[in-house]
Design a protein that fits this description.
single chain; mainly alpha; about 70% helix; flat
Length: about 400
């Protein structure tokens, strides 16, 4: 790992004689000079920037340092483009480190470059940051280094990550509206119960008379919410923390994730997402020349569901004894017959990666169609439910008004 990085302002002269200025992070002034020289720039001045007091960057844990899959996908595409254009790996990593907008990723790329400069392979340098660069990328890069086609592998990695980003974006886009409506409904109901119902209750109590049944129900719900709101919020926070801490633990996943697949409607969506991810990752690894046993181990863990991970682990053990991939896959209901047959045809024709690409494209389309159908189904249902709840509360609140005049008289 590289030492702590510092920030330096620099001014340089490019090949055309133009003076350029900028800021760069590096362990030392000498490292900055070396990096600028590798970029073909003549150094004029390098000055360390103070990071004390108000000049120090504000970092918010979990937000400022977050590196998403989209950041890695963009970085992979840029690195593939520069390597394919003939730039040296060190120079490409230097450029990426300087121009990457994500500060955390820029720092890690600087460390990767420093490792490569010391003689570590690119795959080895990436492998030192497993939280940023997944095993899929590391193993594909290693295969590209061994086979001498690193630029092709980097392009394949970029395409894989870009497809995953698009898949996630489709799901988020389709589910955003129902989620917003649901949250608004909860807040609206809670607000009416906590702030509006007590006002009506006091008003009706001052007038005397018997409250209608619906109004009594609202009063009971309001009183109950007053006592349970704060404990409920605390329990939600505790539940979220426990979920975050335990969601990656094997025992927890073995119990919870199979239940996800049994959910009505959403279970099929989760299954299709996992199958699309499995097919795409296995196709990329196979095309890159990664050994099949190692590929199966990687795609199983990257599938996102313990049911597929366990099934792929059994398939890997079966393949180790000399069996094909398709035969043991057929013994697991999580894999539809179409997937099994496509892989079997690919094994017979020697085009497993092409068949897996077709499977991944098919399930990508299925996920998009399913999310659109869910959105079309959920929206009117949620609107009807929200309207029914608000209507029930309005009727419950205004029913006593009809008897106010008789009470006053």
């Amino acid at each position: 790992m590289a030492g702590a990085t510092k920030r330096f302002d620099y001014s340089v002269r490019d090949a055309q004689g133009h003076v350029q200025r900028g800021t760069i992070e590096a362990p030392s002034e000498a490292a900055v000079a070396n990096r600028l020289r590798d970029m073909g720039l003549a150094t004029l001045e390098i000055t360390e920037v103070s990071t004390t007091g108000l000049q120090k960057d504000i970092e918010i844990p979990g937000l400022t340092n977050r590196i998403g899959l989209k950041d890695v996908a963009v970085m992979s595409r840029q690195l593939a483009t520069m390597v394919a254009a003939g730039l040296s790996l060190l120079r490409a990593l230097s450029i990426l480190s300087d121009q990457t907008e994500n500060a955390a990723l820029s720092k890690i790329l600087g460390e990767v470059r420093a490792d490569v400069e010391r003689g570590v392979s690119l795959s080895g340098a990436l492998g030192r940051h497993p939280d940023v660069f997944p095993p899929l990328m590391v193993n594909m890069v290693r295969a590209g280094e061994v086979g001498g086609f690193l630029d092709d592998v980097l392009s394949s990695v970029a395409e894989n990550f870009e497809s995953e980003v698009k898949l996630r974006a489709k799901i988020v886009s389709a589910m955003t509206y129902p989620a917003v409506v649901f949250v608004v409904a909860i807040l609206a109901v809670a607000g009416m119960l906590l702030f509006i119902v007590p006002v009506f209750e006091d008003m009706f109590a001052s007038l005397g008379g018997e409250l209608p049944f619906l109004t009594k129900v609202l009063v009971v719900m309001s009183d109950l919410l007053k006592w349970t709101a704060i404990p409920g919020i605390i329990l939600l926070v505790i539940g979220a923390v426990l979920w975050q801490r335990n969601r990656q633990k094997l025992a927890f996943r073995q119990r919870v994730e199979p239940l996800f697949l049994k959910l009505p409607v959403f279970g099929q969506l989760i299954r299709k997402i996992a199958l699309a991810r499995f097919s795409r990752n296995l196709a990329s690894l196979t095309r890159a020349g990664v050994p099949i046993l190692q590929s199966l181990d990687i795609v199983g863990k990257a599938s996102g569901n313990i049911v597929i991970e366990n099934a792929v682990a059994e398939v890997r053990d079966s393949v180790r004894t000399g069996n094909s991939i398709a035969r043991p896959l057929s013994q697991h209901p999580i894999f539809p017959p179409m997937v099994v047959q496509m892989i079997a045809v690919g094994e017979d024709t020697g085009e497993v990666d092409a068949m897996l690409d077709k499977v991944a494209d098919f399930y990508d389309d299925e996920v998009e169609a399913t999310t659109e159908a869910l959105t079309s189904l959920i929206e009117p249902i949620m609107i009807a439910v929200l309207g029914g709840i608000i209507g029930f509360m309005v009727i419950g609140l205004y029913m006593p008004i009809f008897s106010v005049f008789s009470v006053v008289q």
